[in-house]
Amino acid sequence: AAVAVPLYFLLVPALGAVGACVAYCSSQLGVAVSAYRMGPTEVSSSLRAPLIFVAVLSAALMAAVLSLLPIDSFHPLTSVGIGAGVYLLACGILGKTRLAAELSGTA
């Protein structure tokens, strides 16, 4: 909250909704970093699991695809569907063997 409120006051008047998004994402990043650093070691070690890499890479691929599409010409739910489809497809392709290994206990 100590970071979020000043960011909202600075960014929302200057950038509008985009400023609100930047302020929100920045504050959530701060919360995530704080939770990671102050949390138990079990949590920080679980973030090194191979499936976390698959999720992050799939999210990056989804963002790249959505940034290349003319989003303004789509209904928002269509954009959500495209993004979800790309994410699930990427997770399925990238994580198939890693998920099988993790479920079988050989990871």
Any overview of this molecule?
With 107 residues, this protein is mostly helical. Helices cover 82% and strands 0% of the residues. It is built from five helices and no strands. Helix 1 (4-15) packs antiparallel against helix 2 (17-38) and helix 4 packs antiparallel against helix 5 (76-104). The model has no long low-confidence stretch (mean pLDDT 85).
- The quaternary state of the protein chains shown equals single chain
Largest sheet: none
Number of strands: 0
Strand content: under 5%
Number of helices: 5
As a percent range, the share of helical residues equals over 70%
- Helix and strand content put the structural class at mainly alpha
Low-confidence stretches: none
Give, in order, the helices and strands: HHHHH
Cα(first) to Cα(last) distance is 39 Å
Name the shape in a single word. flat
Mean pLDDT: 85
**Over all CA atoms, what is the radius of gyration?**
18 Å
Question: How would you describe this structure in keywords?
Answer:
107 residues; 5 helices; 0% strand
Quick rundown:
82% of the residues lie in helices and 0% in strands. The chain has helices spanning 4-15, 17-38, 41-46, 50-68, 76-104.
